[in-house]
Amino acid sequence: xxxxxxxxxLVSTISCYSTPKLETEIGEQCGPPPTVQFxxxxxxxxxxxxxxxxxxxxxxxxxxxxxxxxxxxMNGVWEEAPVCLEPCTAKEKDMEENKIQLRWRNDKKIYLRxxxxxxxxxxxxxxxxxxxxxxPACQQGKLQYPKCFTNEIGEQCGPPPTVQFxxxxxxxxxxxxxxxxxxxxxxxxxxxxxxxxxxxMNGVWEEAPVCLEPCTAKEKAMEENKIQLRWRxxxxxxxxxxxxxxxxxxxxxxxxxxxxxxPACQQGKLQYPKCFxxxxxxQCGPPPTVQFxxxxxxxxxxxxxxxxxxxxxxxxxxxxxxxxxxxINGVWEEARVCLDPCTAKEKDMEENKIQLRWxHNKKLYSKHGEEMEFVCKxxxxxxxxxxxxTTCQQGKLQYPKCFxxGFCxxxxxxxxxNNINSNxxxxxxxxxxxxxxxxxxxxxxxxxxxxxxxxxxxxxKCTFAKSCQTPxxxxxxxxxxxxxxxxxxxxxxxxxxxxxxxxxxxxxKCENGQWTDLPVCYRPCKISSEGLTKSNLRxxxxxxxxSIPDRNYKHGTELFVSCKSGFxxxxxALFKIACYDGKFNYPRCFSGNICRITQEGLDxxxxxxxxxxxxxxxxxxxxKIYFKCKNGFYHRGQPTGTCSELAVSYPTCSASSSV
Length: 659
Prior knowledge:
Elements: H1 2-15, E1 40-41, E2 54-58, E3 64-66, E4 70-74, E5 77-78, E6 83-85, E7 88-89, H2 92-97, E8 100-102, E9 111-112, E10 120-122, E11 126-127, E12 149-150, E13 167-168, E14 181-185, E15 191-193, E16 197-201, E17 204-205, E18 210-212, E19 215-216, H3 219-224, E20 227-229, E21 238-239, E22 247-249, E23 253-254, E24 276-277, E25 294-295, E26 308-312, E27 318-320, E28 324-328, E29 331-332, E30 337-339, E31 342-343, H4 346-351, E32 354-356, E33 365-366, E34 371-376, E35 380-381, E36 389-391, E37 403-404, E38 408-409, H5 412-417, E39 420-421, E40 427-428, E41 433-435, E42 437-438, E43 442-444, E44 449-451, E45 462-464, E46 468-469, E47 476-478, E48 485-486, E49 491-496, E50 501-503, E51 507-511, E52 514-515, E53 520-522, H6 529-534, E54 537-539, H7 542-547, E55 558-563, E56 575-580, E57 583-584, E58 594-596, H8 599-604, E59 607-609, E60 618-620, E61 624-629, E62 640-644, E63 647-648
Antiparallel strand pairs: 1-2, 2-4, 3-6, 4-5, 7-9, 8-10, 11-12, 13-14, 14-16, 15-18, 16-17, 19-21, 20-22, 23-24, 25-26, 26-28, 27-30, 28-29, 31-33, 32-34, 34-36, 35-37, 38-40, 39-42, 41-44, 43-45, 46-48, 47-49, 49-51, 50-53, 51-52, 54-55, 55-56, 56-57, 58-60, 59-61, 61-62, 62-63
């Protein structure tokens, strides 16, 4: 009966794997996508993403994107983000220190993408030691500059440095000329760390390499730790620095959980694991759970130390590691992994304009490590060098991409010659518009866009931007160091003379030969005794009274005033006058009947007040008032009015110019 039950359980277990479930229908959401140094995602970043949603990364100019640019949220976890590899700059200071210069151009600044090579030559009167690399490559933002020396006779060196365990090839001399070198070698099983060729540089030897010792699995140490070699019976074995050696416990002994049984040789030293007699062994609970996989047979609630279970994976999955996992003194060995198969999905193939080469099924499973081959759909083609075969990697397929016939490939040489760059993919579909940018310190000659037309692109051009002359402002001066000319993007700061007030941005920027808006220095004001008298005003502050007319007031200063005795201003006993760019306004006070200009009266007659009145709204009996017509309206001669019997007589401007 027990055997029959086991058979039923085994059959039902096998049936669970007959149709593998490759995707989670409703997965956990992810937070914001990972941050990439120097790079960013395209589009708007959301606070959360559903499982299966993706973002696309891009890198700035001259940076190289390494990895997948499209990263997906997979059941609450983002796939690994790409990296933006930095460019390098051939800096004038570093070239001067090393007595070198660029071979092909005289620019003081040049950008190199990761992996690009730049050629240097020595400055006149200098030379490099034999074997110096004069064409270094940019490596993630770092450039290894060659070093040149004056080509006189340098100081000699004595014998080369001694290296433990190692020696130089050839015959050692008592002295060496500057630029001469020796080559080091290490004995069998030793690893040479550093440069094997070392040079005499003007009396000083370059740093010598090191010979890293091998390790020996010693019989005495293994006996003390109750261990033995897993794969060989030799009592003596050499392990090269960095290599691993695997030990197992002697019979009737076991190692504590987590013991490293595969130590690596570190400069002649080996960390031996230690095993103990397994007299009292702890039991294990149920075996570890394996995603997509399961154990064969019936799972028990507990297992004795030394017992084992066997794992298996469903159809199309590949088991990574040993199928057998053991209980060792209460701890299970590391659980195995079932590697996902891949599915060539119709949606993905449609997006990439490809189809399977040999079959026309809409869905095809491929095991981890197996290849799948695609071809372009009719009317499409792949860029030269595109690999149409792809290998399944733990459930992921890297699809090739095809484009409509007539697609374009961005030519880096042409873009460099035209001083432009683009953040778009190198391959562009026929009819697609490409957006370009000018390189640094360049300006476009025309629109920075072009369309791919049957494999051809009419590339735009950028030229060096014009420099700006030294800027000047009235009543002010430069607060930054003065130069004869300024490059594109340069900025300067301004300050005003004493008692002057700056208005507008204090900084201006050079843009293709022109400065952005320059600030204005507003003038200070002085109180006019005549202006006060004419307007029947007096200052409220005794200090201000005494300072007339000597004191300067900065632009924007306000002073309290009042009408002289016997004069008044409607509804205002105390009010202010303000300094505006060198001039105080003086509102008038009156002793008799007055009229008031109203905005309603102005608008009804299509009028504005003439500037001669300085925006005054009150007028005395019999006073003549000057107006002007609003834009688009006309009057024969200057329109004027009069204050009479507490009312203003307004002239009227007409919409017709024939009046």
